[in-house]
């Protein structure tokens, strides 16, 4: 008898040194809840770390809605290129507000506007290098 898998799909994002700032920003502005944050210094093998890497994030976890976003600081990490975290909003006002926050200091690929498939839609990369799609369908 084959047992069916029931995995959960979570997302893991690497940052080049600002994972903590990104997660704290998402917690404050996107209604997320940080459930875990560990620095490299808290690693049992921390004695071998370079001094400038001790406060880097080894592993962090934040719950945003029903999704878990995990992350870490990785030297030479690059901004997200081919994947987007997608936020779906119940109202156009929530979408617009989040767009304003995430776009500040970031790069806009498609400005917030009405499309044939959504009331409000935008694509951007925030100041932390995370790529987002924002969507309000009604």
Automatic annotation (TrEMBL):
It holds the Pfam family Glyoxalase. This is VOC family protein. It comes from Flavisolibacter ginsenosidimutans. CDD domains: PhnB_like (cd06588). Residues 15-133 form the Glyoxalase/fosfomycin resistance/dioxygenase domain.
């Amino acid at each position: 008898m084959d047992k069916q898998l029931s995995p959960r799909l979570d997302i893991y994002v690497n940052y080049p040194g600002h994972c903590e700032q990104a997660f704290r920003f998402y917690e404050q502005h996107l209604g997320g809840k940080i459930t875990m944050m560990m620095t490299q210094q808290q690693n049992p093998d921390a004695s071998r770390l370079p001094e400038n890497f001790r406060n880097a994030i080894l592993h962090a976890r934040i719950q945003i809605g029903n999704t878990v976003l995990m992350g870490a600081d990785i030297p030479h990490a690059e901004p997200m290129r081919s994947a987007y975290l997608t936020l779906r909003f119940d109202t156009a006002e929530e979408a617009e507000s989040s767009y304003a926050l995430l776009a500040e200091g970031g790069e806009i690929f498609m400005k917030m506007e009405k499309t044939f498939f959504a009331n409000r839609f935008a694509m951007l990369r925030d100041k932390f290098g995370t790529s987002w799609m924002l969507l309000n369908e009604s």
